Amino acid sequence: MSAEGWLRGALLLLPDGLRPRYREEWLGSLRDAHELDVPRAAIVRGAYLTALGTPRSPAAFGLTPGELGFRRLRWAAAWFAAALVLLNGGWLVPGEALPAPLASLVSTGLAGLAIVAAGSGAVAATIGLRTLLPVRRPWLGWFLAAGIALAGAAVVLALLGVFALAFALLLGYVAGLGLVVIAMAWPIAREPALRRTVPGIPARLGVRRSALLAAATLLAALVVAVLHLLVWNPMAKVPGLGLAEIYAELAARGEHPSLGIGFVMAWAAMWLPLVLLFLAVAVIGPRGPLRNLDERRVARSALAGLAGIGFGVFIAGFNLGMSLADAFMTSGGDAAFSGALLTAAATVAGVAACLRIIPHTTAPAAG
């Protein structure tokens, strides 16, 4: 990577309010490095030392203490959500399709990343709460902030543990419709300066191409998910029988496969409105009721949708999976490799969605 590229990384470590000043200063130093007889690598090292040593005060970010505190709490929520995504991925990715050593490696690796993400969330939550707490004594402020952060995390984990199945069922069957409503209705900052990060690839593609790519990706994921649940996974679980024989045997043993098939098709149908929404944006653009779907909104909604589809496979196929397990004395995990691929895609998309959506979400007035 070039020295300019390394400097861009150092700029990302700086508070927002200081970036324009240091960008001009550092790039100027690089341009004059030869005349000054200073190695470009030394300039890059100095930039990183400066960025890491800069105080993170509200003034440096161009924010009030309250705004900075809530921004850090949003980052904490993003890291905690990413940790949950990684834990789910580590639990669901291996299934029965991967060799035991590889499955163990994947689970352990994702669990380790989840611990890192949770630790980052705990640090961000503590710093954010300390910024918000009107306590003059530093030790007392940090003590209270850490205590509140730990207590809040414990309460959330307890609620997730108690209501995990209910949350999973609810999200599994209404997440697609929920994303449609949020994507269309959530206000968007029309002023580019209010949108803190560069859209990147979606901006280069344009909103219509981004929407078309999003629709194609989600539709492909849905097709793969349905085929996985109704065809590939049953055949992988009972390799000695054909698909028709498997379903006939399920019916003969009173497992009612039509019910499981119905759940799968109903689940897939609940995601079609999101695909149709992206197709509408691809055809007519972000106008009228679609005005809030710019490139960034489309890309982030697509990431959330891909994560929802990949993780929702577990809920959609739960009934049919249990029927197969009861009828043929198999486990409830995925036996087809397609299940591991779907969950892996969901894990990557889910982490990206958490870190791109939650920290940068505000509710500006629509313009």
Fold blueprint:
Blueprint (H helix, E strand, L loop, with lengths): L2 H10 L6 H13 L1 H4 L3 H14 L4 H4 L3 H28 L7 H33 L5 H25 L1 H22 L15 H5 L1 H31 L5 H10 L4 H28 L10 H22 L1 H11 L8 H21 L10
| SSE run | HHHHHHHHHHHHHHHH
- Report how far the terminal alpha carbons are from each other: 40 Å
Shape: globular
DSSP helical segment count: 16
Q: In angstroms, what is the radius of gyration?
A: 24 Å
Q: Biggest β-sheet: count, sense, barrel?
A: none
Write down the overall mean pLDDT.
Answer: 86
Keywords:
mainly alpha; transmembrane helix; transmembrane; globular; membrane; 16 helices; 367 residues; disordered C terminus
Polypeptide structure, described:
With 367 residues, this protein is mainly alpha-helical. It has 3 domains: 3-59, no CATH class; 63-162; 164-367, no CATH class. It is 77% helix and 0% strand. It has helices at 3-12, 19-31, 33-36, 40-53, 58-61, 65-92, 100-132, 138-162, 164-185, 201-205, 207-237, 243-252, 257-284, 295-316, 318-328, 337-357.
Task: Compose a concise summary of this entry.
With 367 residues, the protein is mainly α. The protein has helices at residues 3-12, 19-31, 33-36, 40-53, 58-61, 65-92, 100-132, 138-162, 164-185, 201-205, 207-237, 243-252, 257-284, 295-316, 318-328, 337-357. Mean pLDDT is 86; it is low at 362-367.
